[in-house]
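Researcher: Please translate sequence to structure tokens.
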Amino acid sequence: MSSHREAPEISQDPAADNTDVYAFVSPDKPDTVTIIANFLPLQQPYGGPNFYEFSDDVRYRIHISNQGTAQGDLIYEFLFETTVRNPDSFLYNTGPIETLDSENWNRPQTYTITKIENGRRSVLGRGLPVPPVNVGPRSTPNYGELARSARRLRNRTWFFAGQRADAFNVDLGSIFDLGALRPFNEAHLIPMAAMDGVNSVQATNVHSIAMQVPIDMITRFKNQPTNRFSPHATVGVWATASRRQSRMQDPATGTSVGTGPWVQVSRLGNPLVNEVLIPMGQKDRWNAGRPAADAAFREYVDSPELARLLPVLYPDVFPNLAAYDKPRADLNAILHTGIPRGVVPEFQNFTGATQADMLRLNVAIPPTQPEDQNPFGVVGGDLAGFPNGRRVNDDIVGIELRAVAGVTIPLVDPEYTPDETASQLTDGTQSAAPGTDSFPYLQDPSGGYQTRPGTVDEGEN
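Model: Translation complete:
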């Protein structure tokens, strides 16, 4: 969560599981957009000897829509290949890995990037290196330098693919315990003492595909828009993972191989949509679908289950939300169409009437420098943050909790008054690995040797 193990089928296929997608105008290079797609959730840093890696059998893609139709007008495709140098060893490495071509590294990965635009495929790079995971100070000394050496510039675009620290923060242990928010424990239907939130993804890692691309390469007319109200200033972004339709198991080797056409098994645009809004029986179908067909899921955005549960789980706290029975046009605009001009002063990221889940980034709105960013994004008055794309440090759980609880309803229904607590909602967590100031903007992953496993609080069992 935002999309860690969010659907029954994909929870059994971590290597193809989208966890987060970020898209923002780069603060240090404002003529570029940075897009990050994370996969493989909740990695334990000490998970050897078979450490986490991209799958050779998954087709990873980043999609960009720039014509207002929620179609992938521009697609970047990433395919990975793993080499085993010594199949007679069980070890990931046999000595320190100090360079990307170190012979001590027994299982290196490389990848190929293909750009697809107007039906034309062009290979941007082959055999590009993936850095090793952060095993520990003996196996991967000087890890930061090693990872930085894996960045590659191709076709005016910087690319990176490899393990990173998970920057997301959420109290999974509390939220899925009957919708509890620890700072508001005392108001819950089953009350407990209020306390700070616990970041459930602290010290876990993900695998990231990141790219920093010039704005004039992704907009419809190959320019850098300066008018934020132009219909061509906003692009839509999402990521997908696909596998072959059939999988054949070889009993002689114990391995499998995919055959047949590619079939999408995971996708992610806006955070928390499939996780929180889509019901259990529709989650796998949603993952297999296209954003342009998301009108089929509009009812779950117009009438979210969580908005009905909050007044039940927190009695007498959300009376106005409990009484509101209109379709949630505010959530529909935020998540499915973009926000039209005139709703938020000096802002719009509307992409048309097509109902589609994708991050919508208005590239004509300049970035806010990290020290001045408001983690609540547009809701907090910072127009460069979510739902205008998504930055690494945007407080997604807090923003979407407040939105579902009704703070954004007055944008489309001025007669509505949000409940007082709605604007205070938070799960009480902070990121243990906030974003950095330069590409790929995610911190080095937690190391296996350096990380201590968590403990169980026996007092609350």
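Researcher: Any highlights?
Model: The two ends are 23 Å apart (CA to CA).
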